[in-house]
Amino acid sequence: MAPPVVEKPFDHTLNRRPSVSNGENAEISDDAARLMAMGYQPQMRRDISTLQLIGVAFMVTASWLGVLGGFTTGVVVGGSVCLIYGLIIVGVFSTFFAITLGELASAMPTAGGQYYWVSVLAPRRLSRPSAFFTGLCNLAGGVVATAGSSVLLGNMVLACVKLYQPSFVIHAWQNWLIGLAFNWTACSVNMSKKTVARTLSVGMFISIAVVIGLVISIPATSPKHTDAKFIFTSTENVSGWNSEGMAFLVGLINANYSFGLIDTSVHLAEDVTNPEKTVPKALLLTVAISFFTAWPLAILLMYCLSDFEAIVSTPTGLPLLELFNFAFRDNKAAAVAMLALVAFCYSIAMASLHAYIVHPALNVPIYALILCATLVSILSTLVMASTTAFNSLAAGVIIFPSLTYTLPAIYSLLPSNKHIKGPFNLGAIGTFSKVMTAAFCIFAIVIYSFPYFMPATASNMNYVSAILGIFCVWAVGDWFIYTYPIKSLRGVRLESIRALPTGFAYDRHFMLWDVGKKESLHVGVRSSLCLFTTSLTPEHKPGSIKVQYGLSHTFDEPNRHVDPSPLMVPLVPNVKGLPQVTVTMHLSPCLAFDMGKEYNDWFSDRLGFSVKLLYIGDHRRKVLGNMGHGISFNTVQAEPWLAIIPATFFLGMLKKSKKPLITFADLAAYLVISQKSYDDVNERLPDKEEMDITKFRANIIVSGAQEAYEEDFWAELQFRGSITMKLTQNCARCSSLNVDYATGKAGTSEAGKMLKKLSKDRRVDPGVKWSPVFGRYGFIIPGSSSVGSVILNVGNKVEVTKRNSQRTITDYPKA
Hints:
By secondary structure, this protein is an alpha+beta fold. Helix content is 42%, strand content 14%. It folds into 2 domains: 4-16 and 480-804, no CATH class; 45-473, Amino acid/polyamine transporter I (Up-down Bundle), CATH 1.20.1740. The strands form 7 sheets. It has a 7-stranded mixed β-barrel with strand order 2-18-17-23-20-19-25. A 5-stranded antiparallel sheet has the order 8-7-14-13-12. It has a 3-stranded antiparallel sheet with strand order 6-5-24, with no helix packed on it. The longest helix is centred in the N-terminal third of the chain and has 41 residues, at 124-164. InterPro entries: AA/rel_permease1 (IPR002293), MoCF_Sase_C (IPR005302), MOCOS_middle (IPR005303), Pyrv_Knase-like_insert_dom_sf (IPR011037). It is a multi-pass membrane protein. This is Amino acid polyamine transporter I.
């Protein structure tokens, strides 16, 4: 090994790549096969009809309710013309949105929608960050919309109380608590997918009937009316903006809010049959029905707005309720009408939490629902900080979805994507629609971030820019670390983990042992191992590994049936009474515990031959050759992981040894690669192919390298300024790189030839001259401070504190 040269440290950052998990088996229909071809395992039953899809989409968009809910902003900021003509303008652009989304959904019908489209359409280097950002904005849009609904419902209820009892004093905390009740009740109702779908299947007709009833009853009972001149030319502006043009643009928020979340049907593509035709139809019909219910209602409201000053300055804080009161001339009737709208708004709010693990009995993504409801509860606290909280949330309903429409529209216009088409394709009209979609979305993102009222103060500020900033910080900082609880199965990506001398906590503490061949299993020899996915479930204290098998990928044995239930493996098993066996990996022997018949049979049934699941417990393997060159281990204090895993978990580190010790990892405790080198690997593939980064089995992925493969010369890294990692040798690669993780077989695409591609210029280590190398083996130096108690977090800075003047040469014992 060449002597290390100390250089000026430079910063790197822990990086991430997403992984794909396989779901349970399903009967493969044409729709499911199409979804699997896009790299996804079907999760939802396709039990929503076309009519139900249109009904759900229309009910979530609810344009006429958007007109009523945002009535204050539309009237006060821009006057009647802003609302009447704004709906026409936004209706036209919403049609462009529907055509754009419809074409893309027809070509790639998946519940992921925009984030998946971006991952396919974007240039390779922008694919993952663009997809991640788009997916996050999609989540944010749904959360903000639901938070806005909860705030609006609270406003409505309190306004009714104020109208009926004028001495009642409205407080912001009351609004928040009422919204909180609606939010969590809606979450509970969403636990029954069929109940929601059946309710909303008739909701569209009820909705249209309510609009017709309002159009007839309000003008019939209103004592005074305005004229056509007021309706179509009034520019009342009490917003404080000096420019009428700016007031009009900002005031478009009401009209635009009425067409928010028109992409609902896109995200239900996996719940309907023939989605490549059904979803575009639902998108266009949603826009059409929305406009022809919202626009007449807006004209009606302006027709009955005879006392502008009294209505906009109402003590209830809700001009719509004052308009009802003025029309019905009875505060009780007005309150009943408003509460009826509250009930209807609530029924619609139930659908907005339908996000995408799916509960096997309920057939709904129960954890996603709870997460969304929690985020909504937090975000709706904005009502206690701002008197215009609803306006800020309304802007978010437009801005976040606009961000998700913009990137797919732009990327789809690239010449390399012209061949991506579905049954719904409008040619030049579709191209023009995408240009208009991108242009209007950029306009909306900028304009709707301005304050609605001037001068801007802390209480009336438009906080959507702050909300957007929070989500952007989340997007930038969300990188991942990888751990592999069971050797050679699919790994788990984490945001934080305890770093130990023998490797990350619970990394490769289990492995599968071939009973017949008496050897450990790895993907390069048994490619079907990649069909097993793992996840950590700390709710099963002291922690469990959940193992699932992708049954739909067992193509060679179509008549073989295996129980699809997952296997729960205790993270720290009770080894008392378990038999011990001697195993040898890479000439390094150790003892291990046989987990027993239940676990062994589960894996054997799926692999088709006899295997054992082994647990290393407090045993450890010696590192051979010069893999751990120059590292001397001393006694290290053991500390339990998050105070959950018993201290006996780390007993292997308490032993004194002149060489480092490892678990079931091949040759070293850690494997480090750089993002730059991974990008170079992808440059060797055609534009639409990309290597799954988990094939490289790295624990730590570092961004910020200046050149590809510069980690070949890294000698020492420092994390958080307190923990030092020695990098000893480069990692020799095998045929596992060629495995297609979607099928569990050797890949047939260019990615399936990656080992050969790397061999052309990466066979740079004479010690393993027949293999290309990629990545560096590493060991944490026990003498560095806080070892065993340091939690490495995603986004931590990494310093390269030493480099080698030339590449190291592997010297490992031969069999």
